[in-house]
Amino acid sequence: MEGVPKVKLKEIRRRTILYGVTLLVTILCLFPIIYAVFASFKPNREMFTYPPTLFPKKWTFEAYVYILSQKQYLKHFLNTWIVAGSSTVICVVLSSLAGYGFSRFNIPGKRTILVSILAMQMFPGTVLMIPYFRLTDMLKLYDTYIILVIINCAFVLPLAIWLLKGFFDSIPIEIEESAMIDGCSHARAILNITVPLSRAGVIAIAIMTFLKTWNEFLFAFILTKGPAKAPISVGLASLFTTYNVKLNAVMAITVLSILPLIFIFVFLQRYIISGITGGAIK
Hints:
12 helices, about 70% helix, mainly alpha
């Protein structure tokens, strides 16, 4: 490349290497999803052929027809929307109230309380399986939407409170005071001024809660029985039986279950990034 300055040539090489590595990592990360999409259009017998192929030799919709014609799997999808939607709404409301309270009021032992709340995030779910099961049995909440929503909120709320507190800390309290001097009540100043200014954080919390509850499997599997209240993650596991595995149906239900998540991430990813970074900076 004659006539090109050395500095510019180095920059071109650096960018080429960077883009090449980025492309390779992207392909590796997306390959399981790409394979699942193509595999969902294969006949079940073709799933067991060796060596495996990426593209179907015979394209068919039999897996999607099977999934969408079974009432139990439609019920699983409905359960997932109910649990994820309810958990998201409750978590956003509670974390907003708690985050605002910790940000604006002088609560005795506030720092200790905040650290204790965050420490709750450190307990792995497997450690809490037996206590949660016994508590659920005592309260007669086994195989109900209520217990799934409570557990999902319990795991999401600590981080959500911390992030929203950081958002409210970044909004000057003088804005609310000015609104109240002009005649606004405290509640109206919060709803009309503080909440809109912290919109990115609230939306980010809603997205993260929805994604986590949509994918939750461990407690949903332990605390539900059958398709009556179990989400789609449990329905997916039910496709793996001792004598028969419909791998194309597994791929089809996987594709159907990740479509909402892909939609959310593609169209709302800027809120996720701004929510995490904004809540982390005071």
